[in-house]
Design goal:
single chain, 7-stranded mixed β-sheet, Rossmann fold, alpha/beta, 9 strands, 6 helices, 202 residues, 35% helix, two-stranded antiparallel ribbon
């Protein structure tokens, strides 16, 4: 049975495109993107979804409080009968109402090795702190910022001459790889939660 994915984005949607490519190539089997939702009009990711022939919704968030806005998005996702929600550069913190609507069925990709450097400009935070390794994290989403249980991580060495742009580019390549892998694991149900630990089942 084909599992249906809802993607939420605010910008360019490169992680959305990586997921769509993985589905097309069979790396995420028995899955389809049912709808792509943006909270911003003019988001390039929506144009890219249109070009792929995917269903899209733009639900502007400007001026709306978190929960009333989230109720609109949850309704759109339910209407599309999604099994999993994937955040792909979605620049909003989810409300408890949203999280409760999709328990253990919301994933996010973040460009740091959480719990280090949550929030915005993670690559700049890593460089400013002087770490020798950066990376990215796929995690389940709760109502707190970048705080849910970790599904997968990838490590990227920090080079002495790295800038925010060069480090971001190398991390993004790993983001695309592990996000698809994490979605595959979760859709197949090949995991269990023990406290905060996500245990992958073979």
């Amino acid at each position: 049975m084909t599992k249906r994915i809802g993607v939420l984005l605010s910008g360019r949607g490169s992680n959305f495109e990586a997921l769509a490519d993985s589905i097309s190539a069979g790396r995420i089997p028995n899955a389809e993107i049912a709808v792509v939702v943006s909270n911003r009009e003019g988001a390039p990711g929506i144009d890219r979804a249109h070009a792929r022939g995917l269903a899209t919704r733009v639900i502007p968030s400007k001026g709306l409080e978190r929960e009333p806005y989230d109720r609109q998005v949850v309704a759109a996702l339910h209407e599309a009968s999604v099994d999993l929600v994937c955040l792909a550069g979605y620049m909003r913190l989810l409300s408890p109402h949203f999280v409760a609507a999709f328990p253990q069925r919301i994933l996010n990709i973040h460009p740091s090795l959480l719990p280090s450097f949550p929030g915005l400009e993670s690559q700049k935070q890593a460089l400013d702190y002087g770490v020798k390794f950066a990376g990215c994290t796929v995690h389940f989403v709760d109502e707190n910022l970048d705080a849910g249980p970790i599904v997968l991580q990838a490590v990227v060495p920090v080079e002495d001459d790295d800038t925010e742009d060069t480090l971001s580019t190398r991390i993004l390549k790993e983001e695309h790889r592990i996000y698809s892998e994490a979605v595959k694991i979760v859709l197949a149900g090949k995991f269990k939660l023990e406290g905060r630990r996500v245990i992958q089942l073979r």
